[in-house]
Amino acid sequence: MSYSIAQAAERSGLSIDTLRYYERIGLVDPPARDSGGRRSYSDDDLGWLAFVTRLRMTGMPIRMMREYAQLRHRGDVAAGRRKQILVDQRAQVRARIAELQSCLEILDYKIEHYAQIEHDLEASA
């Protein structure tokens, strides 16, 4: 199936400008063009966009995403480096999750503390 740039943007959750930017910087391969010269995205293109979006959500810098995108064109010979990029990013995500878990524990403690104060105030009223 093929999708216009507007449909690809809608399905990927990215803006049209972001799709064009990703194409311009080499993060996304230029999609095929239809008979009118308009971009025509495939299901494979949308799958790659979904992956790139997830990488971005992990906080991976654009430069690392670009390196990964370039390495994927080299095939299996670059599998080791691509794996290492993902391993490194996973470590960073795990560290961030640990930080957020610590923050969540503090919030939970404070919320419980204020709930107890409210309970005590209601009981004494």
UniProtKB/TrEMBL annotation:
Molecular function as annotated in GO: DNA binding; DNA-binding transcription factor activity
Keyword DNA-binding: yes
Domain of life: Bacteria
One Pfam family it belongs to: MerR_1
SMART domains linked to this entry: HTH_MERR
PROSITE patterns: HTH_MERR_1 (PS00552), HTH_MERR_2 (PS50937)
InterPro entries per the UniProt record, alphabetical: DNA-bd_dom_put_sf, MerR-type_HTH_dom, MerR_fam
Domain (HTH merR-type): residue spans on this chain: 1-71
Record's keyword terms, sorted: DNA-binding
PANTHER family noted in UniProt: HTH-TYPE TRANSCRIPTIONAL REGULATOR ADHR, REDOX-CYCLING DRUG-SENSING TRANSCRIPTIONAL ACTIVATOR SOXR
This protein's name: MerR family transcriptional regulator
Higher taxonomy: Bacteria, Bacillati, Actinomycetota, Actinomycetes, Pseudonocardiales
